[in-house]
Amino acid sequence: MKLEIAKIIFGFLSKRGVKLDKDSIEKLIEIPPNSEMGDFAFPCFVLAKDLRKAPQQIAEDLAVEISKSKNNFEKVQAQGPYVNFFVKRGNFAEDTIKTILKEKGKYGMGTQKGKVMTEFCHANTHKAFHIGHTRNISLGESVSRILEFSGLKVIRTNYQGDIGMHVAKTLWGLLNLKKIGLKEPTKDKGKWLGLVYAKASAMAKDEKINAEVNEINQKLYAGDKKLIALWKKTRQWSIDYFEKTVYPDFQVKFNRFYFESEVEKKGISIVKELEKKGVAKVDRGAVIMDYQEQGMGIYILLKSDGTPLYSTKDLALAELQNKEYNPDKILHIVASEQNLYFRQLIKTLEFYDKKLADKEKHMSYELVILPSGKMASREGNVILYDDTLAKLISLIEKEIKQRDSKISKKELDTRARKIALCAVKYAMLSQDIKRTIVFNEEEITRFDGNTGPYIQYSYARASSILKKVKQKNFQKFKVGELEKHEIELSKKLSEFGDVARDAAEKYNPALIAHYSYELAQMFSEFYHTCPVLQDEKKKDFRLALVESFRVVLKNSLNLLGIETLEEM
Fold first, then answer.
1. How far is Cα 284 from Cα 92, in angstroms, rounded to an integer?
2. pLDDT one-digit tens code per residue, 434-454
3. CA 99, CA 496: separation in Å to the nearest integer?
4. Cβ of 408: how many Cβ atoms within 10 Å?
5. Could you tell me if 47 and 12 are in contact, meaning their C-beta atoms sit under 8 angstroms apart?
6. For the whole model, what pTM was predicted?
7. How far apart are the C-alpha atoms of 37 and 193, rounded to whole Å?
8. Does one domain contain both 327 and 409?
9. 325 within 8 A of 155, measured Cβ to Cβ
10. Domain of 262: which CATH number?
11. Residues 147 and 212 reside in one and the same domain
12. Could you tell me where the beta strands, DSSP code E, fall in 219-366?
């Protein structure tokens, strides 16, 4: 409907020589806070300069002209500087439902052109994968899906730290298992490495042990054969764990895995090039970029002992990513702790390759914390992902058993796991990216309120209605006189494409999550006030509306990486 309004306004403006494209007009169209003000509204402030009239006068002229034409509106009226559109409810609901049932999984898709690289997950090898990491991987996969849904080609990449001080600490721990009080297990070795890292980090506070860790780090960069062999073996433990457990749970299929170890040498050569250009300078043996005058401090590119840093490797990574895929944009999904770092990195890339720097974008988000405060792998005060998921599954199993005491163990396990994953993903995506998440296991697994399980339950409830009907022909329905909740649900369904587009433009899955929750709430109100199967005259229309709800909610949840369930 927004597109139809945009076309009408575009025609009005074209006659008057105003150049404003349909997409720009469509973005200006608003949904009023209450239905008394119309179903859609267009603000005329933006036209005042070009038309040399007051916004109120433009609104009146526009309303009069549209009212004279043949259209799908009950009425069009000016209210101050706004033009309010009241749709013909029956026609609108019918058109919306028929479009949804025809387009199904493609309903709401955009037509953008271009190629974007998303870089996310960033779980380092040799460290624990904890609940904080789930916000990053959930955001990364959801943003990737939203951008694909908008029409863009998306390349999913994962840049992992597989070398550096954290690896040196873990290797020191592996070489000193007796000192840290651990034994090598026969299974789950990737997960176990996180414990080794935490124990070794605690001991590395001792100056002597810290010196030994530094020596291991330098030997690794120098190519010590024994250390390289141990590094490769244990690195694979981590990779196997991610591929077996993490990526399948979050339904992620990366196009490319980048590792710090593959870009360190090129990174050093780029730093040397910046030094030769006179852009980078040596300060007390270290190579730096001085951004103090710009309020961005000192950006260290190489340590005084010659070993590379994140900054060294990230310069080479940017060049490699561009060389391999040549995307229009590279979106780095990294926590807000690195805001300054990315400003420094992109500024440094400008001195090396301006076109490359222009493609780089940092999508910043806030952290996940515990009620007791911030998590840190080196301190060991993290909630491991596996342990958390197991606890969530246990909580959900109890809830399912209360609802269905006869459920089989196999079905219980499958259903509880899907709901638990939904609970985690929704908890990570429903909060605005600028807000810190305080992780609460009991809250996110509730089957009521603004939670993933509640939304999954809404879908299952809709499915249960349709199961009661043997013969379904959703295309043959008559609208008739609509009730309040039928109108509101139809309108909400029609908004999905606009919300998806907005989420793509803002890289914000929370918009999709909020929409999903509001849609589920509206369906609940419809369900309680409009019995679907009781009124024979309205049954076909209401069944079509229920199926339309299922299609749109499934599309919406799919953008969040959440699976739907037929039964809860």
1. 71
2. 999 999 999 999 999 999 999
3. 12
4. 9
5. no
6. 0.91
7. 60
8. no
9. yes
10. 3.40.50.620
11. yes
12. 256-259, 281-283, 286-291, 297-302, 329-335, 360-365
